[in-house]
Every structure is written in C-alpha cells, then in structure tokens.
Amino acid sequence: MRNSVNFSGLIILFLFFTSCNKSNQNNQETILKGNATLLVDETLQPIMEDQIEVFESRYEAKIKLDAKSENEVIQALAKDTSSIAVLSRKLNEVEMKIFESRKIIPKVTPIAIDAIAFITNAGTKDTLIALSDVLDFMKGKSVGNIKGLVFDNPNSSTVRYMNNLAGLSAIPEKGVFSFGTNNEVIKFVSDNQGMIGVVGMNWLSQPTPAMQRYVDKVNILSVKGLKDSNYYAPDQNTIAEGKYPLARDLFIVNCQGYSGLGMGFASFVAGDIGQRIILKSGLLPVKVPPRKLVIRKEITNDKN
Fold it and tell me: PBP domain: which residues (predicted)?
C-alpha cells in the first residue's frame, strides 16, 4: 500500500514539474517573443515609439519603453536594470569593461542618423545662426543675437554633445537653462523671443497632436558649421550629404548576452521595415530602403 502511495506521489510530482517546464518554455523570451524593457535616450523617444508599435503588431512581443536622460540610460545599463538601450553614442572603454567583467560583449547596431536642431521663436526674423556663436555664448562670451540657450536636461545627450564641441566639462550656469524634456524646451521657446532652444530633430519632425501648435510657433534655424561659409537646415538631404554640422549617429546597444528580444528588435529596426519607419520620420536611415519600379512593356487602359 505504501509503495502504491509513493508511486502515485512520484507521478504527481512528475506531472507538476512537466507542467512547470512547459509553462516556462511558453513564457521563454526569444528574438521575436516575450517581454523586455527598452531604455531610450529621451531625445529619441518619438521614433522609437513608432518602431515598438509596429514591432509589437507583427510579433508576440511586448516592449516597455523607458525614456531617460543619456546619463540615466547608461547608469541603468551598468546596474543591469535593463539590457537594451538606444543611444546617440557607443559605449566608452570604461563602460565596456563593466560588461566584459560579466562575460558579455555588447552588440551595437547602427540604425539612423539624427540631428540636433536649434530653434527660435517664430517672431524672430533671423533664421540663420553660426555654430561658433553658440559655442562662444556657452563659453561666457557676449553674442548679440543670443539672449539665452535652452536645453532639455543637464544630463542629456544634447548637453553632452554641445559641451564636447565647446570644450566644456559641465553645462554653463550663465545664460544657459535646462528643463525636463524636449517638449518643455519647445513650449518655452515658442513664447520667448531671443531664446535659442537645443532639441533633438525627431521632436520637431514628429510632434504629437498636442505639441503641433507649439512647433508651429518656432523656427528651425539653419546652421553654419565651424569650417563652412554656408548655412544648412537639418533635413535628410543635408544630413545625407554630410553638410549639416550637428548630425549624430544612433545605435541600439544590446547587452542581454543571449538571443533575446534585444537581438530581434535591433534586426527589425535595422531591416527594411524599420528603416522605412525612420525614413518617414524625417531622420536618415543607415540603409535607404529601395524603391521597386514595375516597368510595363505595354500601356493598357485599366479603366476598361
């Protein structure tokens, strides 16, 4: 009788663990299935929202977008609170060593070329600005046509980018202001003449319906580079030709260390559909999607 009870117990345990294993297999993350969190540099949020929406509509995947400043994204990666990120730079040597200590080699996928844009109130007549004037203002010099510079966040990628150009280690205190988001910068500049806003181009090319009225009240300035005599607006043509002086590469950094959604999502964004989404957004894809032309030998009357 005891042997019968023990045998029945073994069968129950076997069925229990088999059921658990099947459940774990069904919930296992693959390159096109499962759940993941994507850390995104806040200046790149609109385009990544579009990418996630299309990706989720095609696959059994759920990706949570977590938009932060660039510094916060890097810190979250280092603490392993998420293993996938979208950045406007590659990881540096110190950051790479953190992952090397974990036996992980981050996979970096180029996905697009973005631009940092200067904006001003639509009532301002001058729509041209020299990059050298902006950098001089950041260094504390007086520049007649600039009353102040407005950034999104002191820890953002735009601040880091401009500080590097100006040779500064921190955001200047005099005449330079920072808010929480790109939207707040756009709103402030739309109501204040003489202020120059510094934002990611994606926020201007893809504004939300609520932000459209503020974007309509600002001018996107054409910029003269440090070694150029011409002014160029930030658009796909000038970025592709290498003429706009504030263009920057965008990357998906996958630190998962296994074949998960990070790999699948990066391949999707770098693939045909993802690159078409980037092209439509106003940014420049790393691979311009081909256009298929159908050449007909005869012209027929389709109406008949």
Answer: 34-271
Instruction: Give the number of domains in the chain.
Output: 2
Sequence-separated (6 or more) residues with CB below 8 Å from residue 287 = 270, 275
Residue 201's SS3 state is: coil
d(CA 12, CA 14): 5
On whether both 271 and 216 belong to a single domain, the answer is: no
Q: Are the C-beta atoms of residues 83 and 257 closer than 8 Å to each other? A: yes
pTM of the predicted model, to two decimals?
Answer: 0.83
| 303 inside domain | no
Instruction: Report whether 128 contacts 231 (CB < 8 A).
Output: yes
Judge contact between 248 and 16, C-beta under 8 A: no
Cβ distance 188 to 119 under 8 Å? no
Host domain of residue 144: 114-237
Q: What is the pLDDT of residues 106-158, one digit of tens each?
A: 999 999 999 999 999 999 888 999 999 999 999 999 888 889 999 999 999 99
The answer to whether position 4 is within a domain reads no
| φ and ψ of 244, to 5 deg | -75, 125
Question: Which has the closest alpha carbon to 208: 45, 40, 39, 37?
Answer: 45
Q: In whole angstroms, what is the distance from residue 127 CA to residue 120 CA?
A: 8
Q: Give the HSE-up count for residue 195: Cα atoms under 13 Å, Cβ half-sphere.
A: 20
